[in-house]
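Model: Ready when you are.
Researcher: Fold this.
Model:
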Amino acid sequence: MRAMRAETFSGYEGLKLTDLPNPAVTTGKVLVRITAAGVTPLDHTILSGKFHGSKPPLVLGNEGAGVVEEGGGTGFPVGSRVMFFGAYGAFEDGTYSQWVSVRKEDLCLIPGNVDDVTAAGIPVAYLTAQVALTLAGLRPGKTVLAPAIGGSIGNAVTQLARALGAKHAMSSTTNHAKAEQAKALGFNEVIDTSLETLGDGVRRITGGYGADIVIDGVGGEVLSQAIGVLASEGRVTTLGYSASRTTTIDVTSLIVPTGQHPGSQHVCSAEGRHY
């Protein structure tokens, strides 16, 4: 089979089109013919040699969609359209290939009204968003901030938070044109940081209250600013570092919540990659 394999972790030039043996189907595995492969930030991190545990040569691709060809049983009959993600493309060969042997528990049937290309990009972003919001204790009426509306996490969290009853589902962008595009697509609480700071935007939208939940997939200075807009007993989950792996925290942001007076108690906890 043909596969796009990283022969070295030296950037995208390390990717080479190659011919490999078809994967074997063993107990508990399902042979899937790949019709669309998702592309995630993890691919870039691995190719840059900055992800622990991954070793070349490696076929990348953490998520994908395809058609069951063998081993699916009654749950996933031959010909079923499925999507999946897991350790593929990180610790074992992934979806940048014609076939993948997939663990049955990683598979999900694709609804008839969702095309393969769309399905291939759903698992990582939307499952991550769902888990993050659940662990953060989202309930109807909470205020949520997920910076970077153009990123998979920022976009997915904003959509799910709004669908699950958040009072405010806020995001941001550094680009005015993207802010206008987001508004045209129905994202009405996107902060244009070319016109105002992230903190000023959150305070404007929430009337000074702040964010009960922050789900950050950017890192760097954005994470620092996001911590500064937490409401009393707010919670921040950090999931990525596309801007930078390091940030600076003003500890008063953890002591005095947004919109509160000095002396108010602020309980801040973190999930995922701890700051």
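Researcher: Now this one.
Model:
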Amino acid sequence: MTGYLDAMRSTLAEIIGERDRVVALALPDGLSPAVAPVVSDAVEQLIAFQGRRYARLYLDRIGRFAHRRDVGDPLLIEIAQLLAMRMAYEDPIRIAQLALAEAAIGPDGVATNRVDRKCRFRIDELVSALPIVVADPMLDVIGALGWQRLPVKMRFNATGWLGIRRLRIESWLRRWRMLSIRYAKERIWVERWLHMIDRCLAKRPEAVRTIVQSATMIRGYGDPYLYGMANWTLIIDSLVKPVFAGALTLPDLSAAIAEARTAALPDRRQTALKSAIAAIRTRASAGTVPASAMP
């Protein structure tokens, strides 16, 4: 209920012409001169993406690593950049926001730059961007009809008044984004990624950069996003978690993840990836290493 009240307040603020007040959010204490600008830029990006509360969540997440002795500036910068990338995920609302920004609408309402982007989403992806109370019954119907993966083409264009007006309406829907199914899933994924980084620092610190970089597997929208998420989850569940739990011994965890990522193709059945993971686990059980890892 709190989320709906917040969304209604934000909507009312839009109607009466208010905006997020430009007040600097406090960065975590002790950030080095190399890290602070990266975090500050990410905060601005996430305020534009969703608002100040969302940017504050980003700062809270960064704060978990900001004062750790085992997290130097290069690693913290990488976490900060990839965290911002994943938190500013590409749903249709985000693409409309980016199109408006790229178009650079002047005071006369005319776009300075021509923007005409065509995107291909899945129908369940579009519905998942809606508030849960609306999306859930729609997804039930779509699922019953077997239409979950039905492709839907959307055009984001700022070449005329009508296109610009549509982009503004679509970007305005950000006020309801935090009530969506997609937002809830993204929040769970980000927290799991951060948890894996934390566990890696404790269990296998030499592999932590590989875990951090695994976030790059999940990008974009449509089928590529779906495949990336599925492949990331399979690698984490089949290799990384068992190593951290002591159920699987991999002397070079980074190399194993890299080998698995090479086989992570856009395949719904994940045939090549499952085969690669099985080979890695078999070698681990036999106590052997791949020829590529030998000196």
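Researcher: Key takeaway?
Model: Residues 92-179 form one domain.
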